[in-house]
Amino acid sequence: MLRDTDVNKTDKQKRTALHLASANGNSEVVKLLLDRQCQLNVLDSKNRTALTEAIQCQEDECALMLLEHGTDPDIPDEYGNTALHYAIYNEDKLMAKALLLHGAAIESKNKHDLTPLLLGVHEQKQQVVKFLIKKKANLNAFDRYGRTALILAVCCGSASLVSLLLEQNIDVSSQDLSGQMAREYAVSSHHNVICQLFSDYKEKRILKISSENSNPDNAVIDEITPKQIRDWPNTYTYTKALGEMVVQQESRSLTIAIIRPSIVGATWHKPFPGWVDNLNGPSRLIIAARSGRHAWAWPPAAPAGTPAPPRGDHERLGVPGLGPGLWQRR
Q1: What CATH number corresponds to the domain at position 59?
Q2: CA nearest 165: which of 193, 138, 190?
Q3: Are 83 and 51 in contact (CB under 8 A)?
Q4: CB atoms < 10 A from the CB of 15, how many?
Q5: Distance of alpha carbon 261 from its chain centroid, rounded?
Q6: Which of 105, 135, 164 is the last residue of a domain?
Q7: Which residues have CB under 8 Å from 34's CB, separation 6+?
Q8: Structure pTM?
Q9: pLDDT top residue among 237 and 309
Q10: Cα 189 from Cα 154, distance rounded (Å)
Q11: Which of 22, 143, 212, 244 has the largest count of CB atoms under 10 Å?
């Protein structure tokens, strides 16, 4: 019957006979078309292959035949979904396993930047989420809004998925594009059960770190400090900013001036005069001035092009009193 027929001919929706047979689960026709060496990766009007349609329609026998004959499992449809996305959406763990065995990409993203794992969490498909976790799917992947699997699970209100994810090595401090973390979504949405899960996780985490560290207090500090200071480079700048903020808020109508002390430089006497173990703060400038490689015009408002002072003119160095101390030891 197919001897003189073009097996790759398409209808108005660009579907071949292989598309139609696969979608309808007609495995005998699929086998016949494969024996006639029909094209495997033809795309219909929605950019779907025969494999994609077979998996969408949960026709596993046809899908397996297509995979065994070399159909590409990673061709995305018009929504960016691959065959693995549809297997996860259908909670078809056996088909998902078959796709991965035939080289399907576990981290492929659709047009919403959802990986199969993120799609499974978003649709609350717990069994296939467990399967993907066992297959080492990236737990810290994020969608177009910066949401990780944990954030999506919280936003969906799924305590069971949150519990599952917290059992893994997952980043609980990850923020989405709005700057929110998973726990903050739980608090703002009044998900009390999920909030308790986060509290339990934090307690267990601190106890674990404490048991592995000879100094439990330091372990707790190391755990909470990055989350507390966030974008500040260190606790010094963070606490200094807090102090200035308190002064600003509490000063009200008072005239306030914040005067910072000079930064510490080299030592005066111990362990020996001039000892310093870094080039932080003014140390680099002091060394440059002492070696005659750098000088500053005084006052600071001197116009551009003002010649540098001679080496012996210590009174014109940038900091009055700095020059004598340096040049007397020359």
Answers
A1: 1.25.40.20
A2: 138
A3: yes
A4: 21
A5: 39
A6: 105
A7: 18, 65, 66, 69
A8: 0.64
A9: 237
A10: 9
A11: 22
